[in-house]
Amino acid sequence: MTYTDLTARIIPNGIVLLFGAALLIAAPFISGEPLWVHLLGLACGGVLFLLLSALTFGRGVGMGDVKLLCILGAVVGFPGVLILLFLASLLGMSVGLAQMIRRGRGHRTIAFGPYLAAAALIVHAYGKEIIHWYMTSVVHL
Prior knowledge:
This protein is 79% helix and 0% strand. By secondary structure, the protein is mainly α. It has one domain (2-138). The protein is globular, with a radius of gyration of 16 Å.
């Protein structure tokens, strides 16, 4: 998925469906969280990116990104999907800024799928710790 998104700016449906189905089945068992947490992560990720895709007429966020975020949102659940979006945006922004510095200004697109995938790995591994840090250090709960 990363290779095809970086080279052709497309996330193939077959990859999303194949790995997505396996991840959707496995996620609730692996995490120990209730099923509704994963379904809420799927819905939040899907609705947010579907809205962004509609607002940008598919040029800013493609449907491959929408489907990928649905799957990844289901895997990390809620509120993990929000952290995933934040981290993916930071990663993508960093690469976009580096491209602007190297190549100058101009309209360039970046493939967002690899940053979604990288952020999902981070959230899957450290999501609970990130949420705990945020709630205790930033929100002070």
